[in-house]
């Protein structure tokens, strides 16, 4: 363990050391801190504002592998295993902290709103059947028989019998309480401004007022992770993809299922009598705004259940998904830099994947078995030097 005696800008001697520093208290960094703290590590989680205020505050919290498509191969396997481990952790967290994270399950209908989408879904169901998923095909008439709430204009749907979702803000609250109960420290309102180096080793981070030292530093700073890596002349292929969403109050209408369309989804939150309508996917840098185009998009998604038009607007949300170039998480040690690890790029499934990736990254940090899937998600594939990148642009 490194021990340093520092003097901060106000002249107060500072000695801030930990085994591990985690930067970013979104669901990814917070879940990692929780797992490390449970294993007896002395961890400090550093957040520039408050936990869960960026992408991890998104309302939907869908934990499904069929809704937005989890691809095939290792990513599908990761998503499936991630659901099982997350459900276990949610059980433990709820017991440890007494915080209900709003876990619900419902049937999910992936609906076709035109003939082209119908063809695409019919193709998908053949793949899903081969993957042993609990799904079946519903013709438009079957849909209306199952529920009068569906629009008569739909072209059929894939029905999945049981899909989970939770409320991310409540999950964050439980994780933070869990971290505190396991004696680790959370430092909020502290923006990490740089990485402290000794040769090719990262020994800590600097914030506006303090220096923090540790044996290992993990960057879990979502869409902002590339900024911190630039100081090491590294380009990380992660960018923000904005998502707008609405929450509507539905005291007079209990939507008993989740609806998914190629443009977005409707997720009932029965515990608070609301429905979440999400989400746009916009590649427009770090801009976070609710736009009329976004609202129009979401209203189109809502039109699959026409009677929702009578609901009142509860609130809106916009967040930036930390999206990697191939849509899959980027995990593990940064090559050529000792003491630096990443956990980011969770893209559109970060709530679902948070627990399993935290388990894998904590195993790597503690020199334990990271499992067979680990090799497919290593950071190496998303990193290049800034010089390499500018050469690519110039050619
Ligand atoms: C509209 C929308 C809907 C979504 N729906 C779902 C869904 O249904 N299911 C699902 O699984 N996923 C969903 N996602 C994706 C999921 O929310 C993200 O993948 C996940 O939240 C990413 O978590 P994160 O911790 O990596 O990033 P973030 O939540 O963005 O957290 C990063 C944290 O790092 C902090 N930070 C950044 N820079 C610094 C710095 N220099 N110093 C200190 N702290 C710093 C930030 O303040 C932030 O708190 C959705 C996302 C959006 C936007």
SSE string:
EEEHEHEHEHEHEEEEHEEEEEHEEEHEH
- Globally, the shape reads globular
Number of strands: 20
- Looking at how many chains there are and whether they match, the oligomeric state comes to single chain
- Helical content stands at 25-40%
Q: Beta-strand level of the residues, as a percent range?
A: 25-35%
Helix count, DSSP H or I runs of 4 or more residues: 9
Tell me about the biggest sheet? 8 strands, mixed
Structural class: alpha+beta
What Rg do the Cα atoms give?
Answer: 22 Å
- Ligand roster: flavin-adenine dinucleotide
Mean pLDDT, to the nearest integer, reads: 92
Low-confidence stretches: 1-13
Plain-language structure description:
- Helix 1 runs parallel beside helix 5 (about 170-180), helix 1 (about 25-40) packs across helix 8 (about 350-365) and helix 2 (about 75-95) crosses helix 5.
- By secondary structure, the protein is an alpha+beta fold.
- The longest helix is centred in the N-terminal third of the chain and has 25 residues, at about 75-95.
- The protein has 9 helices and 20 strands.
- It has helices spanning about 25-40, 75-95, 115-130, 140-145, 170-180, 225-230, 290-300, 350-365, 385-395; strands at about 5, 15, 15-25, 45, 105-110, 135-140, 155-165, 185, 190-200, 200-205, 210-220, 235, 240-250, 260, 265-270, 275-280, 310-325, 330-335, 340-345, 385.
- Flavin-adenine dinucleotide (FAD) binds near residues 54, 55 and 223.
